[in-house]
Amino acid sequence: MVTTTLSLSSVPISSLDKRIQSLENEQSSLGTQEYFVNMGPQHPSTHGVLRLVLHLDGETVKEVIPVLGYVHRGMEKKCEFIGYRQQVHLTDRLDYLCALMNNWAISHAIEKALNIELNERIQVVRTILAELQRIQSHQLWWGVFGMDLGAFTPFLYGFRDREKITAIFEDTIGARLTMNFIQPGGLMFDITSDFAQKVKEFIAYFKPILNEYDELFSGNIIVQERLRNVGILDAKTAISIGTTGPILRASGVAHDLRKLEPYGVYSQVQFDVPVGATGDCWDRYQVRMQEMRESIKIVEQLIDNIPEGKHMVMKFGAKIRVPEGVYYSEMETARGIYGNFIVADGSEKPYRLHMRTPNFNNLWSIIRMAPGLRIADLVTILSSIDIVVPDIDR
Amino acid sequence: MGITMNQLLPKSLEAIPGGPALLTSLDSLINWARSNSLWPLTFGTSCCAIEVMMAAGASHHDLARFGAEVARPSPRQADLLVVAGTIVKRMAPRLKVLYEQMAEPKYVIATGACAISGGPFIYESYATVRGVHEVIPVDVYVPGCPPRPEAFFYGLLALQRLIREGETIRKPGERKKPVLAALPPGITLEQIRSELIANLENKAVVNRYE
Questions:
Q1: DSSP-derived secondary structure for B7-21
Q2: SS3 sequence, B144-206?
Q3: Kind and range of the H or E element at A183?
Q4: Structural domains of chain B, with CATH
Q5: Angle at CA B63, nearest 5°, toward B57 and B69?
Q6: Nearest CB to A178: which of B58, B98, B146?
Q7: pLDDT mean over A24-36
Q8: pLDDT tier at B205 (50, 70, 90 boundaries)?
Q9: Is the minimum CB–CB distance between A164 and chain B shorter than 8 Å?
Q10: Do A31 and A50 touch, CB atoms closer than 8 A?
Q11: Which helix (H) or strand (E) holds B26?
Q12: Across chain B, how many H-helices and E-strands are there?
C-alpha cells in the first residue's frame, strides 16, 4: 500500500501549516491503517443477508472473507423427510429468481430416474418458460446493478419491463415469483389459450427496449469507466473455483449446458453462447445483455408452433417412488449450473439430496477478484456476480 | 369543561387552555404525520424481499404513493421494519439488534409465511425461527408466499390506520402517545379516554374514523 505523506516544503509556512508540520514530525507519515470491517449481514449491497468480513488497508480491500449461514434453512435435510413430490416447491425458494428452472431441474432428475419420456408440448412449453424467466432474472439484475452503481433510474426501468413477464406468468401459472409449475411428469396444468399471443406481444415490446437499455446505461462513460478492467477473473481461476453461468462465460469459457448437454428442445433451436474476453465486470455485464437477446431468439423460434398434446404424461399421486440408485442431473439456470444429486433407497423419500447451487461457487470468485480494489469496486463486483443468498445458504 | 384532568396531569400540561380537546387534536396531528411518513429499513432475507421491497417500491406498483418509499439502509434512520423473508436462528439475534437500534416510535410488519409462522419450513427444519414474533413484537402480519405488492400495501394501510388511532396491537391500550407519555403512575389511558368520551360525546369530536 502506498502511504500518503504531506509535503509542505514548497508552501509558505502559516500558523496552520506549522501545526500540520509538527504533526508530520510526530508521526513521520500520515499513512493508512489496517482494520477489519463487517459488511452485512444487513447491508443493501449484499442482496440479502450475506456477511463479508473485509480486511482493509485504508479504503483498499486486502482480503474478503464471506461468512455464510444467515438464511440457512436446512433445505437438504428437509428434503429427506418430505419426499420427491413435495420437494419441488422448495426449489422455488432456493434461487427464487429462477424458480421455474429450478422446478425443471429437480423434475428432470426424477424423470431421469423413472425413465419418463415427455411429449413435445411439455418440452417446448418448459423451454419457453425457462427462457422467459432468464430474461426476467436478467432484467432484475440489470436494474439492481444500476442501483448498486449509484443510478436509480435503471431500477425503475428494469422493474417496469419485468412486471410484463410477471403478468404473463401470473396469467399462465397463477403465481408471480414462486411458481411450483413444472412437476415430475409434465406441467401442473395446461397453458392458457392466449399464452402465445401474450408472449409475442411482450417480445415485440421488449426488443427495442433492450436498445434503450444500451443507450441509457451501457453507453454511459461513467458506467464503462467503473466496469472496465475491474474485477478481472481469468479463465483458469474461474474453472478452478467452479464458477458457472455468465461469470464463467465472461471469462472466455463457452460452457453452456444448453449447448453441451441439450435438454428440453434446446438442440432444435438456433442460438449463440455469448462469451467475454477479459473476464472483468464489463464482460459480465455484456454477456448478460447478450443472453437476453439470445433468449428472445429462442422464444421467437418456439412460440409460433407449440405442438399439441397432453400437459402431463404421467400423473403422480401423493407419493413418487424412485428406484434405488444414485442419480444426478444438472441444468443451466440464469446464474449457472443447478444440479441435483439424489441417493435413492427405493422409498418415496430420498436418502440424501444434495443441491449443487450455482451461487455458492460463484460467490467465492470474489475472494480472488476483490483484493487490491476499493470498497466501491467491491460492491460493483458483488453485483456483477449477481448472487442470490438463499441459494448459497440453502 | 368539567374534567378533572387538571389535577392528574403534570404541571407542564396545565397551561393548555381547554385541555382535552386540544390534546386529542395534537395527538391526531402527530399520528397523522407519523402514519404518512414511514421510512422502511431495507431488510430482506429471501423471496419476499423481491416482491415486498423491490417490486412494491419500483415503478409499476410505486410505494411512494403511500409515503413510505424512503428506504433507509441504517436502522437509526428508519422507523418501519419490514421483515421480508425467513428468519433463521443464526439471524434472529441480529434482527433483534436491528430492532433495538431503531428509534421510537418503531413499527414492524411481518410479511410472508416464513415471517409469520415459519411457512414451508415450519416442519422438519432445524434452523428456522417459527415466526418473528418470537424475536420482536409485530404490529401487522401480511400473509402470502410471497405476498403480492398489493397485499403489502394493504398491510401498510392497516399499519397507518393503527398509527392514526394511536395504538398498536403490540401494547394494546397503552401505546405511548407523545403527550400522554408523562402520565403519573396510577392513571391509565383507559381512564382518561373514558373521561374524554363522557365529556365530549355531545360535541362530535370522538369517533372521527367511523
A1: HHS-GGGTTSTTTHH
A2: CCCCCHHHHHHHHHHHHHHHHCCCCCCCCCCCCCCCHHHCCCCCCHHHHHHHHHHHHHHHCCC
A3: strand A182-183
A4: 35-164 (3.40.50.12280)
A5: 80
A6: B146
A7: 67
A8: very low
A9: no
A10: no
A11: helix B20-35
A12: 8, 4
How large is the ipTM? 0.81
A317 contacts chain B (CB < 8 A):
no
C-alpha Rg value of chain A to the nearest Å:
24
**Cross-strand bridge partners of residue A328:** A341
Identity of the residue in B45, B51, B125 whose CB atom sits nearest the CB atom of A78: B125
The per-residue b/e assignment along A41-75, b for 16 or more CB within 10 angstroms, e otherwise, is bbbbbbbbbbbbebebbbebbeebebebbbbbbbb
Query: What's residue B11's pLDDT?
Result: 39
**Cα distance between residue A20 and residue A320, in whole Å:** 77
CB-based contact A282:A227 (threshold 8 Å): yes
Give the best residue of B39, B45, B72, B96 to mutate against chain A (max A CB count within 10 A). Answer: B45
Query: DSSP state, B134?
Result: G
- C-beta of residue A338 within 8 angstroms of C-beta of residue A356: yes
Whether the CB-CB separation of B13 and B42 falls below 8 Å is answered with no
Count Cβ atoms below 10 Å from residue B199 Cβ, excluding itself.
19
Q: Are A183 and A173 in contact (CB under 8 A)?
A: no
Is the pLDDT at B19 greater than 70? The verdict is no
What is the grid cell recorded at B7?
389535577
Alpha helices in chain A (DSSP H): 15-27, 75-86, 88-92, 99-114, 120-148, 153-172, 195-213, 221-227, 235-241, 246-250, 257-260, 281-303, 358-363, 366-369, 375-385, 389-393
User: What pLDDT is stored for residue B89 in this prediction?
Assistant: 86
**With bands split at pLDDT 50, 70 and 90, how would you rate the model's confidence at B161?**
confident
Sequence-separated (6 or more) residues with CB below 8 Å from residue A339:
A105, A328, A329, A330, A331, A355, A356
Contact A73/B at CB under 8 A = yes
Q: Rounded mean pLDDT of chain A?
A: 85
| DSSP secondary structure letters along A224-286 | HHHHTTSS---HHHHHHHT--THHHHHTT----HHHHS--TTGGGS-------SS-SHHHHHH
Nearest-by-Cβ selection for A48 from B44, B59, B148: B44
CA distance A332 to chain B (A): 21
Residue pair A107/A88 in contact (Cβ under 8 Å)? The answer is yes
Q: What is the rounded CA–CA span in Å between residue A358 and residue A369? A: 18
Q: What are the φ/ψ torsions at residue A79 (nearest 5 degrees)?
A: -60, -30
Q: What is the layout of strands, in order, in the sheet containing A60-67?
A: A34-39, A51-57, A60-67
Residue B55 DSSP SS3: helix
- Structural domains in chain A, sorted by start: 75-393 (1.10.645.10)
**The predicted structure's pLDDT at residue B26:** 66
H or E segment at B24? helix B20-35
Indicate the pairing of strand A186-187 with strand B80-84.
unpaired
| Dihedral over Cα of A42, A47, A52, A54: its sign | negative
Any idea what DSSP says for residue A345?
-
pTM: 0.80
DSSP of A98-115: GHHHHHHHHHHHHHHHHT
B190 pLDDT more than 50 = yes
Q: Is A186 helix (H, G, I), strand (E, B) or coil?
A: strand
CA distance A125 to A186: 10
